[in-house]
Amino acid sequence: MKRPLRIAPSILSADFSNLGEDVRKVVDDGADWVHLDIMDGHFVPNITFGPPVVKALRRHTDAVFDCHLMIAPADPYLEAFAKAGCDIITVHEEAGPHLHRSLQTIRNLGKKAGVALNPATPVSMIEHVIDDLDLILIMTVNPGFGGQKFIPATLRKIEQAHALIGDRPIDLEVDGGIAPDTVGAVTKAGANALVAGSAIFGKAEQGSYRAPMEALRAAEE
Ligand code: DX5
Ligand code: ZN
């Protein structure tokens, strides 16, 4: 069954001095989810923000907070992110030895559980936790920074993840280098949730994010 297309702007490319207003605006302009990139300077070579910022943003919108944890270890912080207002909590497969435990913890906190795979990690790594998942995030760049170039070899992985999902109610998300010129290929391969930072926040038209988000939707195949 085909799942609805979700546009998830990554606020990594938003105005950090005016985040609340930027989040509100991107949701008003048609975003389905808000993608929050949490980086620890250890699992990835960049640092962003933690639960207090998520909590502060929560007051600005009711939209789904799609939280991408690029932190290791993740387990000690899952409860704090759940309490701060994350709706989907995605951990990296590479971030710890006990993925099944992490996913169970997230679901026990009443949240949707996601797992992210770096470009070099095979889809087979999540075969045995497929029924413990609500979302699979295929990284289409190496995590850490916005504005990188899409890695074409990840397309095959999107297809494999799509086949693994089958009829299960699992969203298939892609993150990194997603723009009108790559949306066709990733949606054709089976992705239904599109994370985009620079292609949305870097492409405002007269202060509106409507046109760049429509351009992403229009490129679906
Ligand atoms: C990268 C982050 C992405 C990033 C995407 O590690 O996970 O969410 O913001 O940025 P773009 O869309 O500019 O490639
Ligand atoms: Zn992300």
Automatic annotation (TrEMBL):
Q: In which pathway does it act?
A: Carbohydrate degradation
Give the GO molecular function terms: D-ribulose-phosphate 3-epimerase activity
Task: Show the active-site residues.
Answer: D37, D175
- Obligatory cofactor(s): a divalent metal cation; Fe(2+); Zn(2+); Co(2+)
The protein's Enzyme Commission number: 5.1.3.1
Q: Give UniProt keywords alphabetically.
A: Carbohydrate metabolism, Isomerase, Metal-binding
Catalysed reaction(s)?
D-ribulose 5-phosphate = D-xylulose 5-phosphate
Query: What does the UniProt cofactor note say?
Result: Binds 1 divalent metal cation per subunit.
Which residues are substrate-binding? S10, H68, G144, F145, G146, G147, D175, G176, G177, G197, S198
Q: Which InterPro entries match?
A: Aldolase_TIM, Ribul_P_3_epim, Ribul_P_3_epim-like, RibuloseP-bd_barrel
Presence of the UniProt keyword Cell division in the record = no
State the source organism's domain of life: Bacteria
Instruction: Tell me the residue numbers annotated for binding a divalent metal cation.
Output: H35, D37, H68, D175
Ranges in a coiled coil: none
**Annotated function:** Catalyzes the reversible epimerization of D-ribulose 5-phosphate to D-xylulose 5-phosphate.
Q: Which family does it belong to?
A: Belongs to the ribulose-phosphate 3-epimerase family.
State the protein's name: Ribulose-phosphate 3-epimerase
* Organism in which the protein naturally occurs: Martelella mangrovi
